[in-house]
Write a structure and sequence with these properties.
The chain is an alpha+beta fold. It is 32% helix and 37% strand. Strands 1, 2, 8, 9 and 10 form a five-stranded mixed beta sheet that branches. A hairpin with a 7-residue loop joins strand 5 (91-98) and strand 6 (106-120).
Length: 237
């Protein structure tokens, strides 16, 4: 049995190093990039909201945002959200000035900004949480990030598809040129692969039922992608 030397390179610069090393390989070879993806439905989400208030004094501004956040957290916990899934520790406070022409700046008040990040494990409740936020004085919804709880499992599936794709492409190319694959010389893997979510279009005319609105948040897909660069040895003719 032939002995095959296999190198595995991990990191962002993997592709560059593979190309550089491939130029020095003293035997017939070919390079391929295998790609794989898995499409899954999200089963959780993380959303963030903001409350911004401007008042005459710093104390009043802070009090206003604190009260709104406290009411929101109380409603979330009453609805069954675990305290560990609520992050509300950050706050910013800044003086606000008016700048009249040819006059010194005038202090007009203080702006307080406080955000809350919530992890939702039941997507069917996401819309009600957002409604609660707006009802409690929160005046900005910043982001809704759809996720899957077991992303590592799906990332592994996408990786295996990428590996199979690299093998199939290499075998097809070698066969097309009247040759065959004779082992793997180097594997370069980008460890920064991340799930790529995309939204599937949803639309309806006014008067939609509540369950339809809830479905508009959950009827989406997350595409988890992966890729691998491989240098294959070709059989000696």
């Amino acid at each position: 049995m032939k002995n095959t030397c296999l190198a595995i390179v991990l990191g962002v610069s993997a592709f560059a190093s593979a190309s550089a090393m491939a130029a020095d390989i003293p035997f017939p070879h070919l390079e391929t990039t295998g790609r794989g993806e898995v499409v899954v439905q999200p089963d959780m989400a993380v959303f963030s909201v903001n409350v911004v208030e401007t008042k005459k004094t710093a104390v009043d501004a802070k009090l206003a945002v604190d009260q709104a956040v406290t009411k929101f957290i109380e409603r979330l916990q009453a609805a069954g959200v675990d305290k560990k899934d609520i992050n509300s520790a950050n706050i910013s406070l800044a003086a606000q000035y008016n700048y009249p022409k040819d006059h010194k700046p005038e202090l007009v008040g203080f702006k307080a900004n406080r955000s809350v990040e919530v992890t939702v494990h039941q997507l069917t409740k996401l819309n009600s949480y957002l409604d609660d936020a707006l009802g409690d004085g929160i005046n900005q919804i910043n982001n809704i990030d759809l996720k899957v709880a077991d992303s590592a499992k799906y990332q592994q599936q996408a990786r295996q598809k990428a590996i199979e794709n690299a093998k199939q492409v290499a075998a097809s190319l070698a066969q097309g040129f009247g040759n065959r694959i004779d082992g793997v010389w180097q594997i370069d893997y980008d460890t920064n692969s991340q799930p790529m979510p995309y939204m599937r279009a949803n639309s309806w005319v006014g008067g939609a039922r509540q369950d339809s609105i809830d479905q508009s948040y959950t009827d989406n897909n997350i595409v988890i992608k992966d890729s691998v660069n491989v240098i294959f040895k070709l059989a000696e003719k």
